[in-house]
């Protein structure tokens, strides 16, 4: 029954989300949330399986309050989304306790906005983390990611061809050294209690293998029914790294007859099928709810109800073979 997930999450809201929910410690989490709502990272901290993504057509002003009201816990942002101060203000204005949400942010490494983002000074990552803390108005961030691996010039420009540093010679002479220097800064921030967990984003298996200790807790990368990197997913699962999907809706074949039939058999939407597929492939996810306040509230409830049904092994296999 799809309504099971909504009923359970509604009870959370009625009870009031706060420090006693145990988002981090897990105290009471298993009793209050549906099975599978949290995953335990390799550092022992718990992370919600689904977060509200605030990038790319899903603004906090439209979706954050309705997300929390529906029972959502995870909020995925980044310093280069330019919405962290807005998120902090919304949390404060709506009296949403810091302990009741799980905040993910990212250091701009590898995004190409400034070659100095991929230098060899660990302090670069620390400075970015401190700036994010100030923007959110909080004293810790639950999960901090390196946004992209630092890469050679030609690779970087293939990702972001219009960015200003895509002219002249390679701006990053030793990407591996840069990645490890930034990673060392992330580890230092974790030691100081500025962040609870650290991870990366958009890393392939070889780039993950080249990182020095500690092993990342999370690798966030694009993953959808129509586009998924099974090799890196398997690498992460073999090495205790939680794989977090973004773009699940961008690669969701909403009108495909097979997806429609699977959705009808479970009494759910095709969007819910696409999100549930990610979960049952062993990943977690961040997904937005759009920019329309009315539909954002409905999408929040719908997204949080994906714990109320399970795809069969046959359905999972069918969906996994729809990559384009």
Provide a descriptive summary of the structure in words:
- By secondary structure, the chain is of the alpha/beta class.
- It is built from 13 helices and 10 strands.
- Strands 3-4-5-6-7-8-9-10 form an 8-stranded parallel barrel, surrounded by 6 helices. A two-stranded antiparallel ribbon has the order 1-2.
- Helix 4 (84-93) links the parallel strand 4 and strand 5.
- Helix 4 (84-93) packs parallel to helix 5.
- The longest helix is centred in the middle third of the chain and has 17 residues, at 175-191.
- The chain is globular.
- The two termini are 32 Å apart.
- Residues 1-31 and 154-169 have low confidence and may be disordered.
What attributes does this structure have?
single chain, 324 residues, alpha/beta, eight-stranded parallel barrel, two-stranded antiparallel ribbon, 13 helices, globular, disordered N terminus
Shape: globular
Secondary-structure-based class equals alpha/beta
Major pleated sheet: 8 strands, parallel, barrel
Strands across the major sheet, in which order? 3-4-5-6-7-8-9-10
Helix and strand topology:
Layout: H1 3-15, H2 29-32, E1 38-40, E2 46-48, E3 50-53, H3 60-69, E4 74-76, H4 84-93, E5 102-107, H5 123-136, E6 141-146, H6 153-159, H7 175-191, E7 195-201, H8 205-209, E8 218-222, H9 230-238, E9 242-246, H10 257-266, H11 270-280, E10 284-287, H12 293-304, H13 313-320
Parallel strand pairs: 3-4, 3-10, 4-5, 5-6, 6-7, 7-8, 8-9, 9-10
Antiparallel strand pairs: 1-2
Helix pairs in contact: 3-4, 3-12, 4-5, 5-7, 10-11
């Amino acid at each position: 029954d799809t309504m099971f997930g909504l009923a359970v999450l509604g009870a959370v809201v009625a009870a009031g989300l706060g420090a006693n929910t145990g988002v981090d410690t897990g105290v009471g989490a298993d009793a209050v949330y549906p099975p599978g709502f949290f995953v335990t990272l390799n550092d022992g901290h718990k992370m919600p399986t689904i977060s509200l993504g605030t990038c790319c057509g899903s603004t906090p002003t439209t979706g954050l309050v309705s997300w929390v009201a529906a029972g959502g816990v995870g909020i995925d942002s980044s310093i280069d989304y330019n919405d962290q101060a807005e998120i902090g203000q919304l949390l404060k204005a709506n009296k949403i306790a810091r302990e009741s949400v799980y905040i993910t942010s990212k250091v701009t490494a590898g995004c190409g906005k400034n070659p100095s983002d991929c230098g060899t000074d660990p302090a670069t990552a620390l400075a970015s983390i401190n700036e994010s803390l100030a923007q959110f108005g909080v004293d810790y961030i639950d999960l901090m990611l390196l946004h992209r691996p630092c890469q050679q010039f030609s690779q970087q420009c293939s990702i972001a061809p219009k960015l200003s540093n895509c002219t002249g010679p390679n701006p990053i002479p030793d990407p591996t050294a840069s990645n490890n220097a930034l990673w060392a800064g992330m580890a230092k921030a974790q030691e100081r209690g500025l962040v609870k967990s650290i991870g990366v984003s958009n890393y392939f298996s070889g780039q993950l293998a080249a990182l020095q200790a500690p092993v990342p807790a999370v690798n966030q990368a694009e993953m959808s029914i129509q586009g998924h990197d099974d090799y890196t997913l398997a690498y992460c699962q073999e090495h205790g790294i939680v794989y977090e999907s973004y773009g699940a809706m961008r690669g969701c074949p909403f009108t495909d007859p097979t997806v429609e039939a699977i959705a009808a058999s479970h009494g759910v939407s095709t969007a819910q099928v696409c999100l549930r597929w990610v979960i049952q492939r062993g990943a977690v996810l961040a997904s937005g709810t759009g920019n329309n306040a009315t539909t954002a509230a409905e999408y929040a409830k719908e997204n949080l109800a994906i714990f109320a049904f399970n795809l069969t092994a046959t359905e999972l296999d069918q969906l996994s073979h729809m990559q384009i």
